[in-house]
Fold this sequence. Notes:
Blueprint: E1 2-8, H1 14-35, E2 39-43, H2 49-52, E3 60-62, E4 70-75, E5 81-86, E6 92-97, E7 104-110, H3 119-140, E8 145-150, H4 158-161, E9 168-169, H5 172-175, E10 179-182, E11 185-188, E12 190-191, E13 209-210, E14 221-222, E15 225-230, E16 237-242, E17 269-273
Parallel strand pairs: 1-2, 7-8, 9-12
Antiparallel strand pairs: 1-17, 2-4, 3-4, 5-6, 6-7, 8-15, 10-11, 12-15, 13-14, 16-17
Amino acid sequence: MLTFLFWNLKGNDLRTWSSRKNTLIQHLDTLADHHGIDYLLLAEPGFTISDLSQSLNRNFEILPSNNHRFQILRRSSSPKIQKLFDSLDNRLSIWKLHFGAKSFLLALVHLKDQGNHQIHSLNHATGKIRHELKRQEDLSKLFRTVVVGDFNLNPYDDGLLAANSFHGMMTAELASVGTRVISGESHRLFYNPMWSFFGDRNPGPPGTYFHSTTDEINACWHMFDQVLVSTEMVDELQEVRILDSDGRQTLTTKRGRPRSDTVSDHLPILFCLKLD
């Protein structure tokens, strides 16, 4: 079993980063121990190697990368992972995780925020990302794919649901078909388990990101952070969770919302793959 944790750390907020940095390191250290995490997948990281040298660096390798939007830490005993591609804007980073016949592509995504960009632009961007990912799948002849990241879109938005984008189905049964033919063209399917976590009728948080506005239409909770797997890997996805605690300390306020000022405005997601 391989365990992954993705977390947007809000490292771009330079106003609060210095006061949050050490707290985040402590949370990551505790999360890694508590859940036996193999790979920490961090978006908007602000850490240097020296920041992590007294804690995570004891058991984790910080993978070299020129992509400032992501940072990957691999537990020293976990399978090797190799960088294949970074987009020019660094919003897509594709890696290959080596596991013999069960090797797969790991794509990290971080789209622009809705506060400064129209949702139509984000939906369009996912189509371009999916096109590049398909190109990398074809080049590597590897179609076992995991996509994870902060999409700044919900599972029901066009960029995650449209056939020419990620085509993310809400059930494993729907995704298991493999492809859908639309107007004579075949489109691959992905399974998006994050549909299942909306609202308060599940044991975890009702979303990964909270934002309240005065707009007439405002869901407040959003599922911006998501993991999707290709049809070939549906049966290997064993667990998905949104975390509101590091195992010792809470990551949320008394009202269950992300502690954006002292930790991060996003909650982490954890997922496990059974490959052996």
